[in-house]
Amino acid sequence: MSRLSAIQIWRLIVLLTVSNLCKATMDTEIQLSLGGANIIVHLRQGDVLGCGDDKVVYKGIKSENGQDEEVAVAFQFTERNYLGKKVTEVRDEAEIHQEIYDKVRRDFGEVGKHPIVIAAYGLAARSSQKSLTINNLGENCKDVQSAVINTSQAIVTEIFKGNYESQTLPGDATYEERKKFLSDFIATAIDMTDTLEVLHKAGFSHGDPQLFNWTLPDSKLRVPLLFDFSQAQKLPKPGLPERRSTVWINFLIFLGSCMDWVSSMFDTKEPHPAYFSIEKVLDSISDRDDPDIIHRKVRQGLNDILVELSKA
Hints:
- By secondary structure, this protein is α+β, with helices and mostly antiparallel strands.
- It has helices at 6-26, 90-108, 175-201, 241-265, 273-283, 291-311, and strands spanning 29-34, 37-42, 48-51, 55-64, 67-77, 81-82, 85-86, 120-125, 131-135, 146-158, 204-205, 233-234.
- The strands form three sheets. Strands 1, 2, 3, 4, 5, 8, 9 and 10 form an eight-stranded antiparallel sheet that branches. It has a two-stranded antiparallel sheet with strand order 6-7.
């Protein structure tokens, strides 16, 4: 057996070093504590549930009293602004998410029957390594190649499959399949409108109810749930112009996101007729309308679209 030359040894050392660095980048384990529970998260591409302008969400394992449960763990980017504004601190976001979840469950009796937001578990913390650079966040985060996240604290919620916007329509879908796909979406948008109404009646504004901040529905729960409360806030008192305008803005964001979704799903030379139908609903509401009127107009407008689709 021949001896390795100095160059070969050097190349082997470099190869092993790079391999270890890549492994550390691809799979870094983070451990956090949440009350009496231990949270373990592997920062690897396959465990990314989604990300936005201010955070990345990973799948994690919550262990407590000998029981393991999959959870969603959201880490905040440390060098990000949202639409030019300072993002909400994770502690504030965790607190308002918990407040919304508890109030809706207590005062409206919706959680369990028709939960409107994902369950909030609280703010997990760790004592060391306050930040970490992560790379290649996957398809849901394709615009973020490298980012620094704050790993000293993270928001822990129930697990979800992904965001609603990530749904795709097969390119070879038949006319009937495309029609059903769109009808199912409009029906879901009506459910989302009901969810926003409950949230507003509870006295809160989500602030950014775009489709990527709603979960994908599953076999157990047909209606998507709201998540990411970084822009959430308490609504102004009833009767004030600021309350009307805040609810109106929430629906401008929501309906605008629905229009974008239809445009992307049905990519043709001319916008799909449903695009203009949703735009008509958007134009029917104003910041002078009371929240109840806005909810009623949006629900009725979307229902009219659903009726028209059934006749097509």
